[in-house]
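Exercise 4. Each item below gives a protein and its sequence. For each, produce the structure-token representation.

Item: OmpA family protein (Flectobacillus roseus).
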Amino acid sequence: MNTFRFWTLLGCFLGFITSEVFAQQNLSTTNKKAINAYQDGLQALQERKIDEAFQQFEEAVERDNLFAEAYYQLGRLYEQNRQFGNAILNYEKSYNSNQEAGVANSALQFLGNLYMRKGEYQKAKAYLELLLPRIPAANNLTIQRIKRSIANAEFALRAVEQPLDIKPIALPNTINAFDTQYFPTLTADRETLIFTAQNYSNRDENLYVSKWKDQQWQQAQSLSELINTSQNEGTASVAADGRTLVFTACGGRNSLGSCDLFVSYREGNDWSKPVNMGQAVNSGEWDSQPSLSADGRTLYFVSDRRGSIGKRDIWVSKQDSTGQWQKAQNVGNIINTTEDDLSPFIHANGQTLFFSSEGHAGMGGLDLFMSQKQGINWSVPQNLGYPINTQDDQVALFITADGQKGYYSLEQDTGERYKKSKLVEITLPGSLQAKIQATTYLKGIVTDAKTQQKLSAELELVALNSSQPVGKFLSDAQTGQYISVLNTSGEYALFVNKQGYFFKSLHFDFSQTHALDKVLNISLEPIQKDAKEILNNIFFATNQWDLQPQSTTELDKLVVLLKSNPTLSVEISGHTDDVGKDADNLILSQKRAKEVMNYLINKGIPSNKIKAEGYGETKPFVPNTSDENRKLNRRIEVKFL
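Answer:
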């Protein structure tokens, strides 16, 4: 549920009634008593005496049962009171009693809208098609909106005939413990859920967190006393590792506009005091509904600031190399429309954007869409289909890193003034999963190999085919924990760096398999005599000793390490498996070690600080009992002397 949007629409609705009713002229009746009752009803509306207005309009239609304007006003009052069945009944009586009345076009439009809201698309289409030829050609904007509504009804009729196989399952009462809960966001490992919730008794939106423990969601708790206040906080997004949070705060803080975006960082179990994200992100208008990329360095959000294409648009800001947020940019008219475009969610793959819109072809109101990043542009958005989308507003979808599960709020129309919603989980149908590039994650704890002390270390993920970094982050200083998202395609290196320690390098190849252990604890060796480490991202062709290009990333890191520790000498050692002749393996290992040594010398490392040794198959890392083990034994090691 988007409570910001609900209250805005309600305010506009009341204002529309108040201003519209006094513009009525040329009534469809000459019955003076009916006219008097009608005018008394209008006066009661102006004074916000709703019950009296009901009575007067009811008396007006009793005096003349063909009084189109009185039926119309009853329809508006019933719609305001969320009695949509009675609203439809009175709009239909208004139109049928006098199709030439001044309110006839408005009655047709509201009938089309209400039948769309009910999901009765054939009736909605019929009324809208009656309305279209009645609109003067000069009212082009109105004509375009009616045509879009007709197209939505036609789209919905087709979608309902081809439903997706989804079964929303409500999350347990430990989470759905409030009158309404919405805007879920999860960490990459799906073990921490943060969401917005409120009870209507105090109308205070706050952020709550639930942990997955012992195979179940724990009781939701207030996220932090530093974050939640007596004002409204909500619509949050968390980075993949759960340690960077961006959320919306409205009033009561150091804000630039009506609602601003704030950032907070977690260390251990504690969140830092929130900080306004500043003028590069926030404006003097309404800024809300953030979505952080997996690495926390790209932020999508919604704003109605100047420069928007429609009412509310999706904007994006990125961090530069120094960690500063750059001036937000509109994502463009492929995504944004002249209507509301809301609740962006950027998938962990960084390429798939989900969002809610009432400007693209859908089932009426706000539907959920997806678009793929194509260079600097986006693909044409695709409607996610029925019954993910229905006649109700759909917002705030979260898709897990593996592309298999979805979480969102499912509205419940209980007939009360305020809608309620629960958080639900769905398994995405295969047709949608196939459109999402799946990602996986690595998680673990970084420790000192000697003392087991938890360490805050820098982790850098590098795509080996381009030698370009695709993510950089720190493990938690208190817990040593980290989470890293990996796209399941291509080859990657993960480097773990901390001053005073030998860097750790890991290699992941997704070109042929998606299999990957998700928990990987990392021990860093302090730089000292006899410390050694395997270089996992040094590559040679079979039976060759020429370094392959993707080796340069790791070798350059070794150069930096050696230059920062100039007093230490190192041995570069080459090792092989047991395939082939012993003598040939010894020569091959020696040549490979020497090739690495020469690279380091060419990069400025003194030759007297390096020696190269080849050990052939004599020092296996693991027994040569399988192809996988033999692969581990073919390696280059570095040892401090």
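Check: Confidence is low (pLDDT under 50) at residues 1-24.
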